[in-house]
Amino acid sequence: MKLKNKVSNKLSTKLISFLPILKASLDELNEKVKDEALENPLIEVENKRVVSFTNLKNAITDEIETLTVSKNSLYEDLLNQIEVSRFFPTEKSKEVARLILEDLTPDGFFDGNEEEIAEMANCDVEFVKKVRERFKFLNPVGIGAKDLKESFLFQLDALDIDDELYNLAKEIIDNLENIDKYINKPRFKESMEIIKQFKFTPSLEYFDFEEIIPEVIVYNDNGNLEIKLNEEFYPKITIKEYETNDFTKQKLKEARNLIDALEMRKSTLKKIALMIVEFQYEFFRGGVIKPMKIKDIADELEFAPSTISRAISNKYLLCDRGIIALKNFFSTALDDEISSTQIKEEIRKIINKEDIKKPLSDEKIVSIINEKFNLKLVRRTITKYREALGIPSSRERKKLYQTAGKISF
């Protein structure tokens, strides 16, 4: 499958304010549209039916059919395991494990800050890391990993296989982007058969279809892949009849902008889905996922990397291999999408615009940058970059401002 045309998509000024619509999950999208309708008397919203797993032709597997409400939640089951597991023998290790638990995403990945947990638990960061690594002994296997590769390694560690096979499988997982170079290795096929069985969403068995609605659906008809957006869940917007005056002219413009924003969202997701299926064709036919770079797909579609990041945030894909978060198809390293130079320059800009009476802490700066670029940097990264720029801490800057007034860094 090849994309025939490279599409140029420059966001128009009128759509910039609707970028949150692109980033929102389907549930959030419906809420945002309802809010817009409350403010705009010309907008009429009809919420269409939800496409559930049970009526998705050719996309049903045993795994998907088990997606019912669990007797216990994922949190409850993991908490019970932590309390009785020999891998968390001390009260301190249990305390840290419980804090880690609170930072798991619905997918089952760890999305927290180990340094912050260490501060909360009054322990070393290394201790937090060791406790989190012990999550590989919990069920469901793969839970608590930071990303897909680490989840695969957790699942690999749970297998009883010989050292030679284990080492090759581990090396392949560490280099999923370059699988081809292992083809001639002894036991390659054996290793691949193992990796193909791993779950891409550690907490899948706890999903309830009413909570996780896939936005992209990939049908596999004997190797022919068809992509469909789950548009049945999109709100349908119609414009009511109105009398022309200055007020209704403005509201009509806003209503049309909202409709344009929804169409932009669908168009952007469809193009990204086409790129994913093209690049991951072997995965959808039973192969192994190969992490993509956000920058590559952004360049191909002529979007900004931040637009792609918004588009894949909180979105899921359903195929005959299960439900997968779109972000799991992409590598998340900073250099893949935004350079450290860009981040440093952004830090400088933020600090030079700060209120001299209330200088921004590194924690606040990382929050601003993560929101703008849709990243998951931690505070210590911002601290490292700030120090590299020779910019003092917020406390030191406050003292400088008090004596010298506004200073540019």
Unreliable stretches covering 5 or more consecutive residues: 1-13, 50-71, 333-337
Helix/strand/pairing class, anyone? alpha+beta
Radius of gyration: 24 Å
Number of domains: 3
Q: Quick check: average pLDDT?
A: 81
User: Which descriptor suits the 3D outline?
Assistant: globular
Kindly report the spatial arrangement of strands forming the biggest sheet.
3-2-5-6
Distance between the termini: 50 Å
Contiguous helical run count: 20
Percent range for β-strand residues: 5-15%
Order of helices and strands: HHHEHHHHHHHHEEEHHHHEEHHHHH
Tell me the number of strands.
6
Descriptors for this entry?
single chain; 409 residues; alpha+beta; Arc Repressor Mutant, subunit A; 4-stranded mixed β-sheet; two-stranded antiparallel sheet; 6 strands; disordered N terminus
In short:
This protein has a four-stranded mixed beta sheet with strand order 3-2-5-6, with helices on one face. Strands 1-4 form a two-stranded antiparallel sheet. The termini are far apart. Helix 6 (91-101) crosses helix 8.
